[in-house]
Amino acid sequence: MEKTIEYVLRERYNLDSSIAYGCSEEELQILLSLFGEEEPIIDALNVLAGASFEQRARDIGCSPEDFHGWHEGESDGDLDGEKPVSGGGGLPVWEQSWHSKR
Fold first, then answer.
1. What is the structure's pLDDT at 78?
2. Residue 9 has pLDDT above 60, yes or no
3. Cβ contacts of residue 86 below 8 Å, gap of 6+?
4. What are the counts of helices (DSSP H) followed by strands (DSSP E) for the chain?
5. Short-list 5, 14, 6, 18, CA closest to 81
6. If you average pLDDT over residues 2-21, what whole number do you get?
7. pTM, full prediction
8. Tally of CB atoms within 10 A around 73
9. What does the DSSP 8-state code read for residue 71?
10. DSSP label at 36?
11. Which of 66, 79, 83, 91 reaches 20 to 30 Å from 23, CA-CA?
12. In whole angstroms, what is the distance from residue 83 CA to residue 86 CA?
């Protein structure tokens, strides 16, 4: 099952890295091990930890002004029309009804 989880997370992240903002901490750790310290993964971990805009900006190498107009703790993950990895009542993606069970 672990390889299936890695495969699903890898495929979803490759299609749209903003899915990181819908991941659980465990799923983010898997993405971190698969992709390394990419901006969306690091920022999503910071969002989960409740980091300030200033901390998030320092960690991903941008300006706090890049977060202008967002509410504190808000992600940039535009999940409009997307199914978050941990959505659906907290079920992991591979257990959700919409996911292919191949």
1. 47
2. yes
3. 22, 23, 24, 27, 92, 93
4. 4, 0
5. 18
6. 93
7. 0.67
8. 14
9. P
10. -
11. 66
12. 8
